[in-house]
Design goal:
478 residues
């Protein structure tokens, strides 16, 4: 209750940030829905690996983040200068490509994969650029005492957007109430409405909590007078952050920490569809567990704000166990029957078990995500370079997620892994040891072997004094 009352002074800022993060979750949810639609039409893991590239802009945004954090129209303000035109472009793009996307899906998988990858890559690029501006804006819109909740707001907003565009769209499509094209038209309209709201919102209400107003005005004036010098200075700040020993340690952690459950994240739902479970059934299961993803950030927010790394470590081993359980659930699921129907012998108990497993996995994943975001918000709360800092940390986190996802899909579809499959399974196996099992077991073993290293790095990060995370503080220490 105290956490809610603490956020009341920032209520307008929280609502605006939730909206912006929700809209950023829409292309992610649509991308997942399109992946399911491609799988339903016969896409293999190699083609899914190609389509997984659509989300890579969130892992590459660091390359252009300093431009977003520096270049602006003084009259509009640093953040609105980017968010308003970006949301307008996304809205128009969705209107312009709605019919095109619908027609691509009707043309077959081979013809659809690469154009759909290119289209959604651009959508994700625009949203990733907006994410840079929104992350930086959150640091000045929220008061100093509430900046640690930025991660919770991010998680809630993106989960709502993902749910609406994934589960919501698939349900509407199954009921024949909406096609992909008509849903994109609706989303385009929402982006345009949001752009109008941002255009009339104040650029910053709480910046005085973190930076002297006079200093902020001088810095903005200097950037407007010499934009190239300001941009060069921003890239220099980014390099200064990257050189900090704690940041390099954190980068190693973020690259390694998801290996153990990479295959479960990327392959489980696709393997279930491959074995005949319909996308509607999976969307229904997702709808049932989505409230967990929405409520969990609020529930664990105070805990992760106080002890983010303890929360992260607490969730790791149970999440590994859930990854192993997912393999056995798939093992209990036979391949499609001759008529390509969903397996009919599966009981309600099986689907409840799937729901419980995925719900627990989602809850544990959310705990780790919110813990990371809370820590990122804390160490990057400097108003002067906070946007660049936050973007760098988010980029490293996304890179750690995306490379493992793409690698798992690629390996599952590669000829090398197929050759490792057991062509003549022993009698206790109901099916050959196909690439799904090979990649899952490999990830699980790697996750177990790497766990002592990952935990050791996490403790080292946790014990690093806060001044060492600051560019000036680190320099002084040296």
């Amino acid at each position: 209750m105290s956490a809610v009352s603490d956020l009341r002074p920032d209520a307008q800022a929280v609502l605006l940030l939730v909206l912006l993060y929700t809209l950023q979750g829409v292309p992610m949810g649509l991308g997942a829905a399109v992946s399911f639609m491609l799988q339903e039409r016969g896409a293999d893991y190699s083609q899914q690996a190609i389509f997984s590239l659509v989300s890579w802009p969130f892992s590459l945004k660091l390359l252009w983040a300093p431009v977003v954090d520096t270049v602006c129209l003084p009259a509009a303000g640093l953040r609105r200068s980017w968010i308003v035109p970006l949301q307008t472009i996304i809205g128009i793009a969705m209107f312009a490509t709605a019919d095109y996307s619908q027609n691509l899906l009707h043309g077959g998988v081979e013809q659809a994969v690469k154009p759909m990858t290119a289209l959604y890559f651009v959508m994700h690029f625009l949203c990733a650029t907006q994410d840079v501006a929104v992350d930086g804006w959150a640091l000045t819109l929220l008061s100093a005492k509430n900046v640690g909740y930025a991660g919770t707001i991010n998680a809630v907003g993106q989960t709502i957007g993902y749910f609406a565009a994934f589960t919501g769209f698939l349900a509407l499509e199954q009921a024949k109430l909406m096609s992909l094209g008509s849903f994109m038209l609706l989303c385009g309209a929402l982006f345009l409405v949001s752009a109008a709201w941002v255009a009339v919102s104040p650029e910053s209400r709480q910046v005085a909590d973190k930076e002297d107003p006079e200093a902020a005005r001088k810095r903005a004036a200097a950037a407007a007078a010499a934009p190239l010098a300001a941009l060069a200075s921003s890239y220099k700040e980014m390099l200064s952050i990257a050189r900090l020993p704690p940041v390099r340690t954190l980068a190693l952690f973020l690259i390694l920490n998801r290996i153990g459950f990479a295959a479960t994240d990327s392959l489980t739902a696709l393997e279930m569809m491959k074995r005949g479970v319909s996308k509607t059934t999976l969307a229904t299961i997702s709808a049932c567990i989505t409230p967990i993803s929405i409520v969990m950030p609020v529930v664990v927010g105070p805990w992760t704000a106080r002890s983010p790394w303890r929360a992260w470590r607490w969730a790791y081993i149970p999440r590994m166990i859930m990854s192993l359980a997912a393999v056995f659930l798939i093992y209990a699921l036979p391949a499609r029957d001759a008529d390509d129907h969903e397996p009919t012998h599966l009981t309600l108990t099986y689907y409840v078990a799937v729901m419980i497993l995925l719900g627990l996995f989602s809850a544990l994943s959310t705990v780790q995500f919110v813990a990371q975001m809370s820590f990122f918000s804390t160490v990057s709360s400097d108003a002067e370079i906070g946007g660049t800092y936050m973007t760098m940390l988010n980029t490293m986190s996304n890179l750690g997620s995306k490379w493992t996802t793409s690698a798992a899909l690629y390996l599952a579809g590669s000829d090398v892994v197929r050759r490792l499959a057991v062509p003549q399974p022993p009698s206790w196996m109901s099916a050959p040891l196909d690439p799904f099992y090979t990649v899952n077991w490999a990830c699980f073993v790697l996750g177990v072997v790497a766990m002592p290293v990952i935990f050791s790095i996490a403790r080292r990060i946790e014990s690093t004094p806060m001044p060492m995370w600051q560019v000036k503080g680190a320099s002084d220490k040296e």
